[in-house]
Amino acid sequence: MQGFISHQKKMKVAVWDTYVTKKDGSVMHFDIIAPEEIKDTTIIYGYGRDYLKAKGQEGQPLTSKECSFCHIETVRPQWETEIKQKGYFIIEMENCQ
Description:
Layout: E1 12-21, E2 27-35, H1 41-54, E3 67-74, H2 77-86, E4 89-94
Antiparallel strand pairs: 1-2, 1-3, 2-4
């Protein structure tokens, strides 16, 4: 009998590059990571707005002007659990405190 190796398919995710002007006028830069199947920008922007609310920046504009699709990549282990729990992961890049 031939040996058989199982190759579990890794989730592919879309990276959405996001720049939002904070209430103090500075610009926060973060990436929204979501499963590649989610193409509806309303959902993606909703993830971004949830994050902004958690950061005390609720009500700041988040539209196609602030958030755009960047690329597809293979999910990283540190993102996967959170994506499975809440649908997305945020990578904080700049001015996210």
